[in-house]
Amino acid sequence: MSELLIRNACVIDPLRGINAETMDIAIRDGRIVEEVSGAAEVIDAHGMLTLPGGVDSHTHICGTKVNFGRYMSPEDMRAGRTPRRGPMHATSGYSVPTTYGNSYRYSVMGYTTLLEGAMAPLEARHTHEEFLYTPLQDTMANVLFDGNWGIMEAIRDGDTKRVAAIIAWTLRAVKGFAIKLTNPGGTEAWQWGKNVSCIRDPVPYFEVTPAEIIRSIVEANELLHLPHSVHLHCNNLGTPGNYTCTLGSLGLIPDLNPKRQTLYATHVQFHAYGGSDWRDICSKSEPIANFVNMRPQIVMDMGQVMFGRTTTMTADGPMEFNLYRLHHEKWSNHDVELETGSGIIPVMYRRKNLVNSIMWAIGLELALLTKSPWQCLLTTDNPNGAPFVRYPEIIGLLMSKRCRDAEFATIHPDTASRVPLPAIERELDWYEIAVMTRAGQARALGIQDLGKGHLGPGADADVAIYPLRIDEVDPSVDYRKVVDAFSRTEYTIKRGRVVARRGECLVDGSNATFWVSPKVSEAYDMGKDPDFIEKFDRYYTVRMRNYPVQEEYLNRNRCIETEADI
Amino acid sequence: MIVKDAVCPFCGCLCDDIEVEVEEGRVIAVTNACELGTKKFMGEERLKGPILRDGNEWKDITCEEAIRYAADMLLSAERPLLYGWSGTHGEAQCVGVHMAELVRGVIDNTSSVCHGPSILAIQEVGHPGCTLGVVKNRADLVIYWGSNPIDAHPRHLSRYTRYAEGFFLENAFRDRKVIVIDVRKTETANIADEFVQIKPGGDYAVLSALRAIVQGKTETIPRTVAGVTREQLVRVANLCKGAKFGAVYFGLGLTMTRGKYKNIRNAIELVSELSRHTKFTISAMRGHYNVYGSNEVNTWMTGYPFGIDFSRGIAFYNPGETTAVDILARKECDAALIVGSDPAAHFPRRCLEHLAEIPVVQLDPYPNATTAFCNVQIPVAVTGIDAEGTAYRMDGVPIRTRRVLSTDYPSDREVLSRMYALMQEAKGQ
Description:
Chain A is α/β, with parallel strands linked by helices and 566 residues long. Chain A has 17 helices and 24 strands.
């Protein structure tokens, strides 16, 4: 039995409605408990800001395309390297760090749970292998269903139950956590070098539209009672005028679930552009935020852009090709049979560039114009908008108008006429930041009942203690102190152990992987469906028996079983 | 007993539809595999147990002793080299990286003498590729450039290209065109619809000519380029632009000939250019069944696919300096651990002269050319036959190999983990 007592913590725990109360946190054997014995090890938090461990609900850290981002970018690997030191392995990389680099840097910032935003089912084993070497966070993966042949055929046949059945079989086989749609339909069209422009374009051959894919899969998601909602990367990412497509997509979504949103729209900054071309592009954060403000069924994340060099990587292959034609940098693409695709290019976001400046403003506007912090979560779509190590700077920008104005003075001078940001006075408070970086993320993922994102008895003892007294710091003025504190915890506690302290990781660790196994009736078991088996055998190049990811690929197995309505 | 859907641990095709019949602890029949794969499954004579060089003799030693020898060798070395890795499973490769990091050694895999230049080209211009099934189901044009799959990857044609069924092709054999580009008329050229014969060393010029034609600059092309007529070049370029889905597969005939990584860069840029007209992809014909896995493992653990030098604590990568051939040729290396490869059969003489001077431990099931340079050899189980583990197909698809036999041989992972544990203990960790 191991016991730990954190004393005098200044706790913000939004899922329990606790806002800056000084209290003790008792931990036994990796979980939060009501009280511990006098023998417990004690950490005196001295009134420091203490939050549940950070949760990132959309990041790219592990798997085929992430690793290819490293593979093709020795210049990025050289841009961030540390030697083996104590229990810490050597790390490389700035925008796409090695797995240990990701894990240590997230841990130092207080993050304890990460969702890999996009995993191709055929290559799932790769993602899980990298999870094994991401020791200081619990992990889970979104599974890509945007160009899945079996699903598109079932949608064409109007058979939503079969859609759900294929998703159930696949999630179980690849040990996935949730459904991801990246440019639905577009990734299949891209395997012919084509794309879909928005939700009403039919996908070549399959003759279904992105709108039909989105609607049908949203219904299937609820039939399976998955913890998370459908996780959508809208069509038409990154093009001027795309906000109408985004509004059209969000408008498809009914409110189907009382516990959480029905749709998680990711990196919405990239989908909130007005104008008709690159010359007249402008911010459309206001109509998007207004729309979301009226619809509790939608949660989004920012996809904030920060200036500097990074690597873009997404399953959205055609979008990356368009970026390549703009930037003329190196370009990688990787289409995956019967399922999806991906693309990668390095980029540099410049403050002297008008489009980049507008992008930077839009992310912040979405967070500031969305009334409820539970509906707009803090992300950069790591590393697409910026590497996750920039999160503390974003917190500074959101909490301080003065910080924003100082930054605004350095960006392209025409930005002011294209974006509403200078007129927004709102400054987020500590509680709202706690929502946007852990509580809201855990609720959106549907993992709060699994002990994530809060500090109630029974929760996983994942805690972040920041070297900051919120009664002494005015974030509106002292934003640099805020940025520093969120960059480096005093203590990061994972599963009841101190894993990082003042920038150093202290233990080797081992992750837990959360995945979902929906229970379906015999009739909907695709493992026994003759048509499904026959198509698998004929068109995949991997045998069906060799496709599922074995339990050997999980350090700690957190299987979530659901009772499906099929 | 028949084991179905076994995974062939021979080449980068990583065929996973093999049926292996086992009787009394021996493989007696193999179905679906090519000749190369069948031979591997049927097995050759393996070493019985670890051996230690003792003057001109070999002495049997225990596994414990052999592991201790290797650990001590690496711990006392100033510039240890950990080389090979393409013929073992990913789990063992991961331990190898940790070992290299601990002793501040150099870890390199066989791609430094194989598709290393292809990787350098990708690091300059990227890689538009896809999984093999995308080609199988869609490609109406396949180009083999400097590769001869009939001999080197025998089932590539039947599983993925020439003879494969394709979802979007009504009659795949008739509707799919195959072009072979090579310096000699190979077996594969005989089954091609079009054969382009290039004078040796002329690949770069031919690639440049094709790029020019695709860009609409046909008038700049001389009558012949490296022995290929302008008419044929125009015909090939038109076939490419007219294809709905084209796929280029290149081999060492492009990677390791004059121009090396510049050839690959040019080929990738041709494909990027064609992508503005139609759908096109390009991929390397990787050799060992898990050479790509070794690149993947090294990359997520160190940031680089091969040639990683930990001598200063950080991971440092500079091919040509931190690659096995160079470390040996400069006589820097003072101990070598070889896993899952046979450098003595492939390295230049100068490197082998140095290898003969330094202590060498090899993990390999079979006696091979490198055995002659070893102080200790530890026979291990063969991944895919009596050990299981992860391998990455040439297109990046990871597959878990099956164990079709049980033997007493330890796996690479087991041996290396025990070695690493001894080394950690000695380092007080």
